[in-house]
Inverse folding.
């Protein structure tokens, strides 16, 4: 499986899913499975919105995932079989009465509401009022179509009661680069009208310098229409439509200009236009920067080093049955500048070429672009450059941090190899656990002209901007990495990775922590946990890492057993089984969640009439977590050890209902307790088959009400 040759910009799209929530997730094209993930609202305060605002925010650009990976936005279970784990972000309230846009370089928002019929009624007082109304309409429409702040959306409708289309184009990274070969946008709409729409027609005007290379999904799937018009037919009430459009940026596109794609989305019923949305995607064209160290001798990392073969990331994920991939590549401490020929010499490579893989990877996934810390990610992310024995010359259009992937699919031992990075690559601040001294680290951060910094440890790697790492250079870096190791070990333990059998060996792979743009929220997907600039204290400061629920939470996402017992509604719940495992390492620390107040909220839920208790729908994330923590307190950590071990050995369950049944039946069996009434009281509503399977186990019923067992230090 090859890492994608990925350079892209993603358009992030949200979807009004009702009940006051805005569902925005991100997705990759990699791997065999995907999961519809609800974005966490646990680590951060939601953005402040107007009463009727469709809030759209950036959740990041490409992830460069394995294989053929690009990170997209998804909002439908229909995509599950096509993609690998999505990024996880946040929920925001919405109302379709307004379009709210986020400016590209700050956090301000502008709103425009256009209801011509309403405005017509307001013009009845004479020509003055009529012309004022018309003028306001035209100004707002021009502002939308022309791309206020590089982002525009405008709506023509017959009035709120008749409007048909809701279109959420999302916030767009504002920079593209000449030669970029995978610029992606994902337009998405929803029929919000009272009736079926006969046709929803998309049309776009492409400027010189942008060419459509592929369309995925929708009526234009696997085609490149000219002119670029696509039409969805017979769109039912509440149905949605989407497509992923991939574009190529011309190599000779002039740096310094802006490039825009105006689009129009129109709905028709009975040949009559019922609503229309206009939007303009706009980017600045820039050249990838070049960095040169003035004092390269201040950087002690060797250009030649030995590498041992790591397990293939996908093979390891399948063994562990966990949600996302961990990094099967290793750090070098060097940076490749754009369009620079780099000589890489490899020796010692042997064995079956179908089993082993040796590659140079360029670019860190989800890493913030120092050219725009607010919104941009670096353009190259995990671009693969295959290596063979002897000298190899590699280059990259945009450049990036260099990694070596030497991996194997089998259990066979492979010899160590030697890789030498040529002098064309620039060293940058690189802290290697047990090797680099504090004095060396500070000196590198002081002298570096390359704006990145990286820690490489046995259990984790950390990549971010050198300026942020420098703020915490006086901290004990070995202590920091030791705390990361404790967190990983604690999450290994609750996952039943005790090493007693090969299937239960802790992974030799490691997760990455990556600094991501400030406009993004903390999130996790393949290979990495991505943390914005305002979370860096919890990344680099040992004392803060000890109570960083956000970091524990993002690491926990990697661990979830989504294939077996973490059904869809649990995506932001079971993740915190692993957060609590880390929390128990530091009982004296005050933390954000798992608090007595959250136990109080759980008790309020349990006090509702039984018919009103719906665990999946009206219990908060931490109310649901209280049930899992109750089970751990009642039956011990071993309950979760065995649950993980058993599910690791099972094939994937095909539906949420079967996952939910598996959980209730298996926990009853492992605890040797008939938990039917317990699950009913918690609002899990076991179906007839679940009740039957638990009854067939002939287990003893609890002598008392287990749901009153306090958790989170509550009473």
């Amino acid at each position: 499986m090859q890492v994608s040759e990925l350079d892209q910009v993603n358009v992030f799209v949200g979807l009004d899913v009702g009940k006051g929530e805005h569902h925005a997730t991100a997705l990759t094209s990699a791997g065999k499975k995907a999961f519809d993930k609800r974005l966490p609202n646990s680590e951060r305060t939601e953005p402040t919105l107007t009463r009727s605002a469709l809030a759209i925010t950036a959740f990041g650009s490409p992830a460069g995932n394995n294989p053929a990976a690009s990170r997209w936005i998804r909002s439908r279970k229909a995509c599950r079989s096509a993609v690998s784990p999505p990024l996880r972000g946040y929920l925001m309230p919405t109302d379709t009465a307004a379009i709210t846009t986020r400016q590209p370089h700050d956090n301000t928002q502008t709103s425009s509401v256009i209801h011509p019929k309403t405005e017509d009624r307001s013009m009845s007082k004479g020509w003055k009022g009529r012309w004022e109304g018309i003028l306001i309409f035209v100004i707002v429409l021009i502002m939308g179509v022309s791309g206020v702040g590089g982002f525009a959306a405008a709506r023509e409708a017959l009035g709120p009661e008749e409007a048909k289309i809701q279109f959420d184009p999302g916030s767009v990274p504002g920079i593209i680069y000449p030669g970029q070969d995978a610029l992606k946008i994902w337009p998405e709409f929803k029929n919000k009208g009272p009736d079926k729409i006969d046709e929803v027609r998309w049309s776009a005007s492409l400027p010189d310098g942008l060419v459509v290379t592929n369309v995925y999904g929708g009526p234009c799937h696997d085609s490149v229409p000219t002119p670029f018009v696509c039409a969805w037919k017979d769109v039912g009430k509440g149905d949605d439509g989407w497509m992923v459009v991939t574009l190529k940026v011309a190599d000779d596109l002039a740096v310094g200009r802006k490039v825009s794609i105006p689009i129009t989305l129109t709905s028709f019923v009975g040949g009559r236009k019922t609503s229309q949305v206009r939007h303009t995607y706009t980017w600045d064209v820039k050249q990838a920067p070049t960095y040169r160290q003035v004092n390269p001798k201040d950087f002690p990392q060797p250009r030649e080093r030995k590498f041992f073969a790591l397990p293939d990331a996908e093979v390891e994920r399948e063994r562990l049955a966990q949600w996302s991939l961990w990094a099967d590549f290793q750090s070098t401490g060097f940076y490749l500048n754009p369009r620079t020929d780099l000589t890489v010499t490899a020796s010692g490579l042997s064995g079956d070429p179908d089993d082993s893989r040796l590659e140079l990877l360029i670019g860190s996934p989800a890493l913030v672009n120092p050219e725009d810390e607010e919104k941009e990610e670096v353009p190259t992310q995990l671009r693969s450059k295959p290596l063979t024995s002897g000298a190899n010359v590699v280059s990259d259009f945009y450049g990036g941090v260099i990694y070596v992937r030497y991996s194997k699919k089998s259990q066979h031992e492979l010899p160590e190899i030697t890789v030498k990075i040529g002098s064309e690559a620039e060293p940058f601040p690189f802290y290697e656990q047990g090797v680099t001294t504090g004095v060396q680290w500070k000196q590198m951060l002081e002298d570096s002209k390359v704006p990145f910094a990286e820690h490489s440890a046995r259990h984790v790697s950390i990549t971010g901007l050198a300026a942020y790492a420098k703020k915490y250079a006086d901290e004990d870096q070995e202590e920091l990495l030791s705390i990361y190791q404790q967190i990983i070990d604690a999450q290994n333990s609750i996952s039943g990775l005790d090493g007693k059998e090969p299937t239960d060996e802790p992974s030799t792979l490691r997760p990455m922590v990556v600094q991501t743009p400030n406009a993004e929220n903390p999130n996790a997907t393949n290979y990495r946990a991505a943390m914005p600039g305002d979370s860096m204290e919890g990344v680099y400061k040992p004392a803060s890492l000890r109570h960083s629920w956000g970091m524990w939470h993002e690491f926990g996402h990697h661990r979830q057993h989504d294939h077996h017992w973490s059904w869809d509604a649990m995506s932001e719940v079971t993740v915190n089984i692993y957060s609590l495992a880390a929390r128990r390492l530091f009982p004296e620390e005050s933390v954000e969640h798992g608090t007595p107040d959250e136990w109080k909220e759980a008790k309020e839920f349990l006090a509702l009439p039984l018919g009103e208790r719906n665990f999946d729908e009206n219990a908060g994330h931490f109310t649901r977590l209280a049930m899992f923590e109750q089970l751990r307190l009642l039956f011990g950590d071993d309950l979760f050890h065995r649950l993980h071990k058993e599910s690791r050995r099972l094939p994937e369950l095909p539906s949420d209902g079967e996952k939910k049944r598996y959980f209730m039946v298996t926990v009853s069996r492992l605890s040797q307790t008939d938990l039917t009434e317990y699950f009913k009281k918690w609002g899990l509503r076991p179906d007839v088959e679940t009740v039957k399977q638990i009854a067939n186990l002939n287990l003893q019923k609890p002598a008392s009400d287990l749901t009153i067992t306090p958790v989170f230090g509550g009473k």
